[in-house]
User: Fold this.
Amino acid sequence: MVSSATLHTAMAEIVVGSMVLATLCAVGCLASKILPPSDFNSESLFITMDRASLAGSFLALLFIPIAIMTGNLAAEGHAESALLYNKFVYSGLALGFWSAFVIGRYRMGPGLWDVRKLAILQSATAVLAFLMTTMASSIGGKLARGESLFDVLPFWLPSDSAAILPLWASSALLAIGAVSTIVVFRLTLPRIQTID
Amino acid sequence: MNRIAIVILLCVSLALAPGYSVANPGGNGDADRDYSCGGSCHGDPSLSMPSDATIGISLANEAFSEQAVAVEVTVSSMSTPSNIFGIFILGSLNGNSDTPEDHGWHIIQDPNGGSSNYIETKMPSSGTITATWVMLSPETIGTHNLYAEIHHGSYGGDKAYSGVSEVFEVVVNEVPEGLPGISSKWVAPSFRVSGDNSPLEITTRNSTDISVEWMMEGEWDPIPASVQCVSDIVEGICNDWEADIPATMGEIDIVYRITTFNGTYSIEQPWLKMGTAPPPFEGDIWSARAHSFAFALLIISILVTLQGRFSPVIDVKDIDQTKIIENSSLVRSEENPGWLWNPDTEKWVEDPEYQEEVG
Assistant:
C-alpha cells in the first residue's frame, strides 16, 4: 500500500514538471511576439510553445487537486505549523493562477498572444503560478527534509509565520470568492470572445 | 545542428548541476537511535568512511546507583566538518538495542534540551564541541560501558563519515542509604512556552529539602528560586516540588541546578537547560482549506476580470442583429413602420432592419 505522503510527492512532481514546461512556453510565446521574426523565432515554434503551455498547464491543473487531496491526507488533519498552513495557502494561490491561465487561453484562443497587454498578463500569470507552486513544493521539502531549493536563493517568500484566519472568516472569504467568480464569469461572458 | 548542440549542452549542464548525493544534509532530527542508525549510509561500512575526529567521554561527577550524572562527550579535530553532524551516546555497539536506556541508564536531558541519545548539532569555529547528557546511572552496581559515536558528511556531500570512541567504563557505586536525588521517573522539560511563568515541577527521592538556582545561559551568577513542597511530607521526606523560575521570551535558554538535601547529605545535581518555545500554533485545518480555496477563487476572479478588460472591445453596432430579431418574439407592425412590438416587456423597440422609404 502506498502512503498518502508518497502519493503526494508523486503527484506534486507531475504538477511541478508540467508547470515548468507551461511556464517556459508561456514566457516563450510572449518573447516570440515581442521579438522580430527570424529563422529561430518562427510561427511554427510559436504554435508549438502555445500548445505546449496549454497542455502543460492543463495537465498540471488536472493534477493539482489530486496533489492537494493527497497532501491533505498526508497532513493527517492537522495544520500544526505556520509552514503547513502556508503550504495550503500557496497551493490555493497556485490553483487560482493556473486556473486563470487555462481559462484565459481556452476562452480567447491563441489570438490572445497578439494583444500585447493580454500576452503580458498571460505570461505574468504563468510566472506567478509557477512561483506559488514552487513555494508550496519548497515548504514540502522544508517539512519533510528540513531543506529546500529556496535555501540557496537570495529571497524567500514569507512562510515561517502565517496570517491565521478563524474558520468563520475563512468561510466568509470562500463565499466572497465563490460569488465574485460567478459574477465575473457572468459579466465577462459576452465580452470575452475568441480573438481571431 | 547548433540548436541540437545547445539543447544537449543544456541537458548535460542540468544533469550535472545538483551533484550526486543520496545523503540527508539537513539531518534526521534528534531521536533515540541505535549504532547502525536504521541502516543509514553512515552505519553501512560499504558506504561510509571512518571519521578522523577525536571523540572523548568523561564524567562530571561520581556515579552512584540511580543518581544523576553528567556525561560529557567532546568532539574535536574533525578534518571534513559538514554543516551539521550527529552525536550518539550508546551503551554498546551491538547495532541494535544499544541506547543507554537499553542498558539501564535513564536520560534526564540531552545536550539539546530533549531526552534522546542522538542529537544533531553544529561544530563551532573553535573546532571543539562538548555535549553533555544528564543521565541517571543504572541501578546495578559495577562497571557499565558507554560509547560516543558521531556521524557527519563533508562540504561536498559526497561521503558519509562515522566515528566511534573507545569504550568508557563508568563505575557505578553503591548509593549510601538515604542519599537524596532526582526521581528515575522525572524527565527535565526541554522547553517552556514563551511568557509561561508556571512553576517547574521536580520529582525527587529521599529529599527533605531542595534548592534550585537558575541563570540565563552564558551568565555566571546563579539566582536562587523559591521552592515549595507540593505533596504530603512523610517522615520529613517530600518528593514533589515546584520551583518558581521566571518566564522567558524570544530564544532565551535558562540553565538551572537542583540541589537535594537529606540530613547531612547535600547533593548538587548537574546543570540542566530549558529553552523557550514559541506559543503553540493555533491554525485550524478547515480554516486553512477554506483560506486556500478562497484565494484560488479570488485570484481567478481578478485575473478573469483583467482578461476581460484587456480583450479587444466588441462594438455592439458591429454585430449583425438580424438573427437575434428573427429568433425573437418581436412582432412587426404595419401601423408603426420602423418599430417592433415586444410582447414580453410590452414595449416598442426600434427595428434595426428598417430603412425609410425615400419618395
